[in-house]
Amino acid sequence: xxxxxxxxxxxxxxxxxxxxxxxxxxxxxxxxxxxxxxxxxxxxxxxxxxxxxxxxxxxxxxxxxxxxxxxxxxxxxxxxxxxxxxxxxxxxxxxxxxxxxxxxxxxxxxxxxxxxxxxxxxx
Length: 123
Prior knowledge:
The protein is mainly alpha-helical and 123 residues long. It has four helices and no strands.
């Protein structure tokens, strides 16, 4: 409801900056940091993970909230375990257990109930 007035890029940028400012001092206090030990490949991986994985994902999440609303956007979080299960089975030869089946069934049922309820309310 309140996200519709803000640009996804601006919100993601502010969120990432605030998290960086808050966490860098804490990480320096907790574990220390030796910049000389980091290789150029490590810096590349850090930049890629920060820009594509974290910032891109955050921006996409805020765009989804702005475009589709919070309820519909939150349903994408439920799909992640299902896709991870399928990917693990297809690419890592993982075994599909009864617990995974039950969890997948609950996720699908929950998404169905939410979507069904929204359709009934709109009529």
